[in-house]
Specification:
Distance between the termini: 40 Å
Radius of gyration: 21 Å
Largest sheet: none
Number of helices: 15
Helix content: 55-70%
Shape: globular
Amino acid sequence: MDRESAGAFVYAKASGILGHSFIGSRTHLLFEQKSLSGLWTMIFKTPVPIIPEVMLAEQIESEAFTKFISEYKYFVKCYDKPDPLLIDQLCIYEAENLKEVSDALSNGQKTPPALVDLEGMTKLDFTAWPDIAKITKDTPYAWYNRVPDVHEQQKMEFKLDLQVIRHLWNSVIQKKGEIREVLLKIYENEYTIKNIIWALRLRIYYKMAKEDIADKLIYVTDKPSSDDPIAGPALSVLDMPLDNYETWSNWKYKDLINPYVEGEPWEIDPTWIENRNRVVLNRLSLKVFHQYPMTECSLIGWYKIKKYELRCIRTAVESLRLNINASEAMSSVGISTDGGAIYG
């Protein structure tokens, strides 16, 4: 379809899917189920597979992910010439596929691993298995032309993650006007805050030095410096006193910090920031979906909303499998027992 026709069709179809999704006030339904079989029936509306419970848990997560990716690919393919930014969202899974192949080869696996089917929306040629150099040949990942040994695997995977996020960020930078600013706000809430959380965890729980933390941060410029839009805010928190609420209350992202109670000890809580930001990002994505209909912004907003739903499904599965209290499980994704936002 041409851009205008496809935009109208995709927005109408995507709106219908969101109407039946487990988001907003419907999220709590995931956590009201008393069994994995009940969860399966509610989500998929199909007969429950006759398999052991452990396998059913895995199957629910796998089926939910496959459905999410399939719907997104369907929308992208509705366009005769989809905006490259829409295809770029799948780069994350392209990189994960490459990691899976590399891991399988390093373990001596003789058959290809299960991969995310990107239906031609990938530059990698996985039919060239087991030759990893041929898989990545003439692609932006051509540098990944051998199977790393156990000592360098983490380093190469980090380089791969860095490349993907840089590509996503630069794709947005090339946009113009309001679309650019809206998408940058989404990416800031996702990647900048993730970096901040990671930096705080390394500082608080691992007592890591500032210079060592810097080397472990994602960045989109030449190096993780104060000038980098993703690494800069994370580096700045490394100099902030962890137990001084007044300092943090003047922080750029002060709306994400854990509450302060007069007279009680306080310390910045990266888990609170993470859960609060999930809610903020989900609300922002929903706002973008409705505010910019029939644009790439809208579909990217839909994509982020459905990723949040997927996380909620996975959390509900784990709570049933491990017999975790429903309210505790809901809290971990920012939802209160009445369906509202704890961190809202």
